[in-house]
């Protein structure tokens, strides 16, 4: 392992569509950390959520606003909010009118990952 690594999120390829992630884990040469930049288009609302078996995550709102579904509870999000989520908690996002941008940090994960898609129901 090197003494340090440096990568610019904008140099990492993102997916296409209203929800785009840039995953740095494979570029930062860390066995325990993963950091992701995620951008949601204005008014995007997730139809599915996800959860993990062992990986804890923390979400930092760096721009925009929105809402986060955590199991059956909805939390409003604004710039600079920090939300820690236990692995087994189902989470999903809804972006506000200006979109939603997040930095997500995740701890150690099993080989091959432990993310699992989960059904969600947004309260009315």
What are the SSEs and their pairings?
Blueprint: E1 19-23, E2 34-40, E3 48-52, E4 57-70, E5 73-77, E6 82-85, E7 91-106, E8 115-119
Antiparallel strand pairs: 1-2, 2-7, 3-8, 4-5, 4-6, 4-7
Q: What does this entry look like structurally?
A:
The protein has a single domain (19-112), classed as Sandwich (Jelly Rolls), CATH 2.60.120. 0% of the residues lie in helices and 49% in strands. The chain is built from no helices and eight strands. The strands form two sheets. Strands 1, 2, 4, 5, 6 and 7 form a six-stranded antiparallel β-sheet that branches. A two-stranded antiparallel ribbon has the order 3-8. The model has no long low-confidence stretch (mean pLDDT 95).
Q: Quick one: overall form?
A: globular
The count of strands amounts to 8
Question: Structural class of the helix and strand makeup?
Answer: mainly beta
On the 0 to 100 scale, the average pLDDT is 95
CATH homologous superfamily heading: Jelly Rolls
CATH fold-level topology: Jelly Rolls
Instruction: Please indicate the percent range of residues in DSSP E strands (runs of 2 or more).
Output: over 45%
- Rounded Rg: 14 Å
Share of helix among residues?
under 10%
CATH C-level label: Mainly Beta
| Main sheet overview | 6 strands, antiparallel
Instruction: Give the distance, in angstroms, between the N- and C-terminal Cα atoms.
Output: 49 Å
